[in-house]
Structures are given as structure tokens and as C-alpha cells.
From TrEMBL:
Transmembrane region(s): 28-58, 87-115, 127-151, 157-180, 201-223, 276-298
A GO term, aspect molecular function: phosphate transmembrane transporter activity
Keywords: Cell membrane, Membrane, Phosphate transport, Transmembrane, Transmembrane helix, Transport
Entry-linked Pfam families: BPD_transp_1 (PF00528)
Entries under CDD domains matching the protein: TM_PBP2
Full protein name: Phosphate transport system permease protein PstA
Homology family: Belongs to the binding-protein-dependent transport system permease family. CysTW subfamily.
Topology versus the membrane: Multi-pass membrane protein
SUPFAM superfamilies given in the database record: MetI-like (SSF161098)
Subcellular localization, as worded in the UniProt entry: Cell membrane
Length: 305
């Protein structure tokens, strides 16, 4: 009781009006100015993003229809048509790239974070992965062309998938490593204290706990791979046909993709194909958006569990 009285008496001597922020104070003016500038810069930075989205919705939304998703591209002097084969080709090649990059990226991340974090091999792998994050995508296409296309004698979906996996691998690996490092040390020690081996700790404790962060890295890698054009020009080329022919997958044939279709049609003098390129760009953005939303939903479910 006496302590409460002493505290109340000490606060009685405080001049509370003086503690209020005054606009005449230099620090208050500086804080308000910086807050205003931060808001202005944020709005300015969002202008290019929203302008691109507006143009995609305005120009590409005009041609959106069911036929776009079920038909093949038209020839130069024809109207109508679609890019259903390019959607299937894009999903196929990105799927092949994910099947290659995700397992190898996560396994490499486990080694870097748990089994040999301070070894010379880990340092060399990290250095190479960071270099690959800034690797020009066209060089990945050249490598896949020399290693796959020349070897098989044809442009194909697997060649495109391998080129895209080179670009996805460092993103998956580095983000997965950081996610694994964020797993609390107490959880690992508790599992070891219960008699779990290091492999069991990784499989039963670390990977499930780090899964939300790893899913985010996978979605970022998929988003980058889906929009790449240069590697596919060297590996998958393009096609006006479906990848599914006569009930079977024609993987070892030139394969269409949305990015290459946009590249080819955006520079032609035919209005119908230019409109098709705008619609394809909008569909590509929507596909990447849906993939990211699904990834976020899955990661949140993992967190709530």
C-alpha cells in the first residue's frame, strides 16, 4: 500500500502536458516529414505494378474466353484461336523442373544446415548457389541445349525442364537452408534426448517444422521458372500442337509455352496475335498468382498444425 502511495506521489510531480508531442519540436517535424515521404515513396513504387496489372486486365481481359484455353494458336492471317497447348506445355516443363530442383534443393539445404554447416564443401556450395541466383537465364538455356538438345537431337519438354531447374535450384536451396536454421535448437535437443537419430530428427522434426518457409521458397522458384523465356528458346523452342498426341505424351518434341508465345506474338504486325499475347500474359500472371496462393494456404495449414 505504501509503495502505491509513493508511486502516485512521484507521478504527481510530472508535467504531463509537456510530454505531449508538439509540431514545433524539430524531432516531431522530422518524424512527420519522414513518415510522409515514406508513404509517398511507397505509393510511387506501387504505380508501375498497378499500371502493368491494369494494362494486362484491360488489354488481355478483352480476349479471355473458354476457347483460349481449349484451342491452339492461329496462323498469321487467321483470327480466333487460343493457347491451350502453351498452358499445358508451361505446366509440364515447370513440373519437370520442380521434380528436379525441389528434392535436390531440399537435400542440399539439409546438408548445409545440419550435417556439414561449417565444412569447406558447404562453403563452396553456398558460394555457387549465390552465384547461380544471379545467373543469366539465357546461359542456363545454352547449357541445357548443349547437354540435352544436342545429345537427344531434338527440342523437347525435358530439355526445357532441365534448363528451368537450374534457375530454380539455388532459390529452393538457399530458402530451405534458412528455414531449417530457424527451427529452434530446443526441439532438436528434445528429439535427440528421446533417443532419435540425426536422420530421424531431420525427417520427423526439422523438415515438418521448416516446411512453411520451404514452401515459400518453392513458390518463388516456380514463379521465376514460369515466366522465363530465353532458356526455352534454346531447349523447347515452340509448337502449335498439343503435347498430348494420340493419347500419349509427346515429351520429346518441340513444346509450346506461354512465355515463348508472348515473345513471338508481341512483335508481329497482326492485331489478332498481339491481342492473344496480352491475354496469354494475363493468364500467365493468374497461374503464378494461383500457385502462390495455394502455397501460402498450405504453409498456413502446416503452421496451425
Amino acid at each position: 500500500m505504501n509503495d502505491e502511495i509513493e508511486i502516485s506521489e512521484s507521478f504527481a510531480d510530472v508535467d504531463f502536458p509537456r510530454l505531449e508531442r508538439s509540431l514545433r519540436h524539430p524531432r516531431t517535424l522530422l518524424s512527420a516529414f519522414l513518415s510522409l515521404m515514406t508513404g509517398v515513396v511507397t505509393v510511387v513504387a506501387c504505380i508501375p505494378l498497378f499500371s502493368v496489372l491494369f494494362m494486362l486486365i484491360y488489354r488481355g481481359g478483352k480476349r479471355l474466353s473458354l476457347s483460349l484455353l481449349t484451342e491452339t494458336p492461329p496462323s498469321a492471317f487467321e483470327s480466333g484461336g487460343g493457347f491451350g497447348n502453351a498452358i499445358v506445355g508451361t505446366l509440364t516443363m515447370v513440373g519437370i523442373a520442380a521434380l528436379i530442383a525441389v528434392p535436390f534443393g531440399i537435400l542440399a539445404a539439409v546438408f548445409l544446415a545440419e550435417f556439414g554447416p561449417k565444412s569447406k564443401t558447404a562453403s563452396a556450395v553456398r558460394f555457387c548457389a549465390k552465384l547461380l541466383t544471379g545467373f543469366p537465364s539465357i546461359l542456363a538455356g545454352v547449357f541445357a541445349y548443349a547437354a540435352v538438345v544436342l545429345l537427344t537431337g531434338t527440342y523437347s519438354a525435358p530439355a526445357g525442364g532441365i534448363a528451368l531447374s537450374i534457375l530454380m535450384l539455388p532459390i529452393v536451396m538457399l530458402t530451405a537452408e534458412e528455414s531449417i536454421k530457424m527451427v529452434p535448437q530446443k526441439m532438436k535437443e528434445a528429439a535427440i534426448g528421446m533417443g532419435a537419430t540425426q536422420t530421424q530428427v531431420v525427417w520427423r522434426v526439422i523438415l515438418p517444422t521448416a516446411m512453411p518457409g520451404m514452401l515459400t521458397g518453392v513458390m518463388l522458384a516456380v514463379a521465376r521458372a514460369a515466366g522465363e523465356t530465353a532458356p526455352l528458346l534454346f531447349t523447347a523452342l515452340n509448337s502449335n500442337y498439343w503435347i498430348v498426341q494420340d493419347g500419349s505424351l509427346a515429351l520429346m518434341e518441340p513444346t509450346a509455352s506461354l512465355a515463348v508465345l508472348i515473345f513471338n506474338f508481341s512483335g508481329v504486325p497482326f492485331e489478332s496475335q498481339i491481342e492473344l499475347a496480352w491475354a496469354a500474359a494475363l493468364v500467365l500472371v493468374l497461374i503464378v498468382l494461383v500457385i502462390n496462393i495455394v502455397g501460402q494456404v498450405l504453409s498456413r495449414k502446416r503452421v496451425t498444425r
